[in-house]
Design a protein that fits this description.
The complex is a heterodimer of chains A (about 110) and B (about 160).
Chain A (H helix, E strand, L loop, with lengths): L1 H24 L6 H10 L3 H29 L1 H5 L1 H28 L3
Helix pairs in contact in A: 1-3, 3-5
Chain B lengths: L27 H29 L9 H8 L2 H29 L3 H27 L17 H4 L1
Chain lengths: ~110, ~160
């Protein structure tokens, strides 16, 4: 039940970001200056944190989606679906531990 | 259907679907279900690679500017990569939003309006994104050379 909520909420968040992300990338077709100015705002601390949240949403949606497919296709996965929820969160935590320090150094380190 | 005898009930009573779209295509929802399960794993590979290359390698988010994008899209591999990611993600996300609209927007006019807006957004973003990827010029003639990738010097 909770994973169902997580899947919906992350899905909607990713969808709206995707709309914005295509629009900001489209600025490369306007001019290098226009693109660099807008993408520059993604490098500010506030957006840096939003991006971290976005990466978190994508990872959760991705791994939980794979869990749903597994549960639909295999009775083994269906019987172990509670453990698979744990697997989703553990895999998510491991990747975030790898990603967050590096990303936050890029955002706050002034590199 | 409703005349079945009360002592023989094969399963829990299931209500009629809340939304009757009026445009029933046989098997349409099954194709939607299949598409989500086929595009999902492909998107996992496409997007996690996209995030790793853009945010983890090099200087991460700090490296992203016009020259970075131009450097990537100079290679057809990344053009195709991003095009596939764009189309599949918009269709996967659009179909997901369609399911949510059907779940939550019960009033007919609202349901119709949201589906219309969704269709315009999905189609518009795919067309715009495709045009950007396939008509991209990494070395615009009138641009400040300091903002362009280094290979543009050889092109001129």
């Amino acid at each position: 039940m909770w994973m169902w909520v997580v899947h919906r909420v992350t899905g909607v968040a990713i969808f709206f970001f995707l709309l914005i992300h295509v629009l900001d990338t489209a600025l490369v077709r306007v001019s290098p200056e226009a693109y660099n100015e807008v993408i520059g705002s993604y490098k500010t601390p506030l957006y840096g944190l939003v991006e971290a949240g976005l990466v978190a949403a994508i990872l959760l949606h991705a791994f939980n989606g794979l869990r749903i497919i597994a549960v639909d296709h295999s009775t083994w996965a269906l019987r172990h679906q509670k453990q698979l929820v744990w697997a989703v969160w553990i895999l998510f935590a491991i990747l975030m531990v790898g990603f967050l320090p590096r990303h936050l150094m890029h955002v706050f380190g002034g590199a | 259907m409703t005349a079945s005898s009360p002592e023989f009930v094969p399963g829990p009573k299931i209500k009629e679907p809340r939304i009757v779209s009026g445009r029933v295509r046989p098997g349409a929802e099954q194709w939607s279900w299949r598409f989500m399960r086929l595009s999902g794993p492909v998107l996992v590979v496409l997007i996690l690679t996209h995030l790793f290359v853009n945010l983890m390698t090099g200087d991460g988010i700090s490296q992203i500017d016009f020259a970075f994008v131009a450097g990537k899209w100079a290679a057809p591999l990344w053009q195709w990569w991003d095009f596939l990611m764009l189309a599949l993600a918009m269709l996967h996300g659009g179909n997901g939003m369609r399911l949510l609209i059907n779940d939550y927007a019960h009033r007919a006019w609202l349901n119709k309006t949201l589906h219309g807006a969704l269709g315009v957004a999905v189609l518009g973003i795919i067309v715009l994104g495709s045009l950007v990827i396939w008509t991209f010029d990494p070395c615009p003639i009138d641009a400040d050379p300091s903002l362009l990738p280094s290979f543009c010097e050889d092109v001129r």
